[in-house]
Amino acid sequence: MYRPKTTLEQWRILQAVVDCGGYAHAAAKLNKSQSSLNHAVAKLQNQLDVQLLEVRGRKAYLTEAGEVMLRRSRHLTQNVQELEVLAESINQDWEPQITLAVDLAYPKPLLYPVLKDFYPDSRGSRLRILDTVITGTEEAITQGWADIVLTGMVPKGYLGEPIAEMQFIAVCHPEHPLAKMPSPVDPNELMHHLQLVIKDTSQTPNEKQGWLKSELRWTVSQFDTAIELMLQGLGFCWLPEHKVCDKINQEKLVKLDIKGSSFRKMVMWMVHPRPDGLGPGSQLLSDCILAHRQIKHTIKSTEEQPCK
User: Fold this and answer.
1) What is the pTM for the complete model shown?
2) Where in this chain does the record put each HTH lysR-type domain (predicted)?
């Protein structure tokens, strides 16, 4: 019978050292001494007879072999976590707390009737509803810290149920120079104007989505902040149509017709990061979400007014 040379704790320490960029920060995150982490990684390398890390300056970097081993180790620790969550789910009748991660782009008015239906049968479960953006939403799935995730992108290896469809449009103030240019606006013109960007909620953001070529960008944490700035004549921004439809109808903002990209359509999905460990409360909430899905219709503004 095969006996492993290494432990899960060693692999978790290696992952923390890499994710935190060094032993000092990893030690603070894990509440362990730096020397114990050094010893654990050194022992791991000796047991495997493979160099996984090399230290340059104050930072630890993965070797090529380390990159391969680390990637496989993440699957291992994730599988163990899912197995333990499954056991916990089997042993309890109803989860005491449910975490719902909602991408900031998802229209909150669609969520309110869901929660109204869920509440009478929630059996006192504490519900955490957390706003996430871009990589932060993806991490809620891949790191498994949420029970249900409403997202605009399903990561590789996961399944999702489509629940809504929406559009992102570029907007600015009517007096902004971009609004006065002949339509369609040349995308190269955008590079010379202030772009407002919504902050990624991940601790390690990865800006890999959307147009981000402007030489000057301001980052804000909420759509409403971007809208308020544009109402003052500052910048342009891509936003969900339902968030700015009323401002467009009131002629306080205008929709930009950009050559090659008049709008971007996004399908919103419901994803279960740990489907095998889904408790009865989370299942009930999922059923309520599906009962109110709006995938057959493009989401309009909360006032149900079409944008001009």
Assistant:
1) 0.67
2) 6-63
